[in-house]
Amino acid sequence: MTIRIATIENVREAEANLRPFVSPPPLIRSYALEKELGFPAGRRVWLKDFGWTPSGSFKLYGGLNWMANNQDRIGTKPVAAHSSGNFASGIAFAGMSFKKKVIVVMPETAPRIKFERTRSFGAEIRTYDITRDHITGDRERMARDIVQNEGGVLASPFDDPFVIAGNGVGALEIVRELQREGRTISHFICPISGGGLLAGQAIAIADGFPKAQIVAAEPALANDFTLSLAQGKKVRLEKPTSICDGLLSYEVGQHNWPILQRLVTQSIAVPDLETRAAMRWLYEKHGLRSEPSGTIGVAALLGRSFDISGEGDIVITLSGRNVDEAAFADWIKLP
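RE: above sequence
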């Protein structure tokens, strides 16, 4: 595989591909988090909430840019992808927007809302047993079969420079808004799994606020990136486990790793119980029903497991809100 490293120029180019289809989701000041952390009056905390996008997560950003840049290669062929659910709905939205057929491979246990959103944009879904995927490899095999047997074009949910650049547009929005207000960033906190979101957003944040510390958040039992940073090389987990269904990649992507290793300051491994507490906190303080994967950055901050001292603002990416009501109600009932 030839590694192509996405750049800030690629992120800026991607914005033109997104704007006909999606408006910037809100950047919300969290007075409640500022109070919780005991911040002085001049320091702020911001939540970038991608739950407001049409697909309910950030994933349509990368999906739209990938689709826009692969029009000639796709032609009349179907687009194939595997996803825990959010990229499924994101690439489905992109397929609908560009009038392309999309076939996605999803875990049979994915949240119902992720199935519903993906189908609502016209995609076909095929399922596999995620509990045995570390043995069978069905997720990637089924996606490859669509390519080999049905002439499909494979779209990676995270390991692709067009996906990375598209995802970076969300952080470009953050940079512009805070610069307009004369603000600076001390810490930027973002979930990580395969790394497509954080790689893209790190590019834009580092360009706009070079002194900002960029912090990754991932589940304690799916901590391949934390281990990778510590060892200076990519680490692959045999069976990542968490309620954060969107953060269960076995390892970060090859296109993402060089960016992440260069720009990310540290990675925080968050226990699921702390993520559940943060989900409850966000619901009680802001009325947000965020999915576990989307909440983990808030959990990392509330857990106070890293140094947040500084003079600039803190920005947290809420990556998605696609969670079933019953599961959410159960998770916020803490022991």
